Inverse folding.
């Protein structure tokens, strides 16, 4: 599918993005979808929306092709809670270009914005109490791991310039996945925008790749300190355990769908602009040709990297501890074509944007050895990706 598309210069795709478009840049390609040709139907109300989703997507792609829409690709986002509706559609038009992430890019300038209101939900102190609740559940044997998050509700003095924010994220996010997509809650429309470091899964032909990240440290501006933190991360029993739980779950989810699977013995470290993470690249050959990238994503999402383990118990505990609805945060965003190829990204380092307000999200993995103040600091560091791209002076946010 990708090879058949019109090839354009990637910066033109960024320049052409408008609010309501679908955009994603990955290490391999950039995709811009405009308009709506056909929506993917939702499942029955109050039912698991993942049941039958792959079939509904395949049916829509087939129908679009039969109607002469030859460049049919489904794009969009799936929420964390599978009982909430996904926002998936076939764009009216699709443009695909090679990624220019590795090219030298000029710094995209943007004026600083003024924050009228900024609220942490939960508050820092209540977040630490929530982490303690998570630790207690782990030590009681109920859970192996839980990921607990918080949101920052930001109100600005003027409407958000989403095209500029997306451009800033793309220029700063040199090795990850920058995205924007229209989302909807009932009749409320918004934009999901972010720069995730984590590939959930991709499929090309008969081969699949997953790249779980778990175990983190904030990145320093001092290279020597970064080296120390990287060595600490690679030898930390707490972080290695947290990472192993995620890798084990990803392998378990993929194994029934793969003929072969390759798993490195030890994780490596990947860097983002603000963080460093333990990373494992898992590769395999599909068992059957009709297994799509979306099938693979549904089999994996949510991983313990964004939820916990065991999955359903962790998900229930999250609803009891976190005082807000995650929405599309820690869901997945991406695309799938008629051949089944596609890429699905873990929706983190992101925000929901509408008018002059945004809701940012960040989470941290909690295991028995976790310390509440360290998990709080980790969420604060993860907020920096969006805050910097927005031009917000982060010095004023030290206590958030």
């Amino acid at each position: 599918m990708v090879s058949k598309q019109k090839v354009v210069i990637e910066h033109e795709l960024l320049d052409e993005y408008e609010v309501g478009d679908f955009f994603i840049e990955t290490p391999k390609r950039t995709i811009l979808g405009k308009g709506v040709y056909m929506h993917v139907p939702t499942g029955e109300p109050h039912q698991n929306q993942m049941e039958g989703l792959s079939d509904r997507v395949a049916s829509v792609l087939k129908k679009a092709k039969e109607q002469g829409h030859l460049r049919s690709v489904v794009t969009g986002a799936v929420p964390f809670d599978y009982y909430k509706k996904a926002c998936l559609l076939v764009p009216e038009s699709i443009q695909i270009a090679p990624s220019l992430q590795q090219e030298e890019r000029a710094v995209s300038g943007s004026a600083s914005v003024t924050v009228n209101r900024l609220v942490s939900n939960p508050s820092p102190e209540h977040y630490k109490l929530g982490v303690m609740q998570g630790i207690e559940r782990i030590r009681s044997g109920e859970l192996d791991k839980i990921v607990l998050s918080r949101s920052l509700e930001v109100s600005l003095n003027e409407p958000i310039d989403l095209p500029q924010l997306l451009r800033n994220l793309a220029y700063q996010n040199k090795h990850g996945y920058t995205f924007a997509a229209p989302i909807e809650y009932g009749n409320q429309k918004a934009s999901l925008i972010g720069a995730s470091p984590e590939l959930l899964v991709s499929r090309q032909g008969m081969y699949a790749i997953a790249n779980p990240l778990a175990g983190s440290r904030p990145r320093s501006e001092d290279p020597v300190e970064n080296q120390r933190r990287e060595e600490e991360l690679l030898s930390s029993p707490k972080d290695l355990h947290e990472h192993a739980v995620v890798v084990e779950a990803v392998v378990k989810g993929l194994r029934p769908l793969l003929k072969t699977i390759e798993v490195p013995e030890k994780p490596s470290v990947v860097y983002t602009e603000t963080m460093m993470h333990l990373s494992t690249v898992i590769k395999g050959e599909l068992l059957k040709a009709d297994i799509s990238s979306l099938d693979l994503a549904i089999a994996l999402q949510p991983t313990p990297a964004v939820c916990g383990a065991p999955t359903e118990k962790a998900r229930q505990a999250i609803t009891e501890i976190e005082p807000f609805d995650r929405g599309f945060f820690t869901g997945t965003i991406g695309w799938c074509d008629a051949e089944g190829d596609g890429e699905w990204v873990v929706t983190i380092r992101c925000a929901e944007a509408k008018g002059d307000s945004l809701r940012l999200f960040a989470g941290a993995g909690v295991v028995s050895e976790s310390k509440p103040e360290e998990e709080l600091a980790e969420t604060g560091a993860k907020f920096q990706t969006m805050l910097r791209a927005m031009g917000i002076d982060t010095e004023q946010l030290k206590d958030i």
Summary: Residues 1-10 have pLDDT under 50 and may be disordered. The longest helix spans residues 372-390.
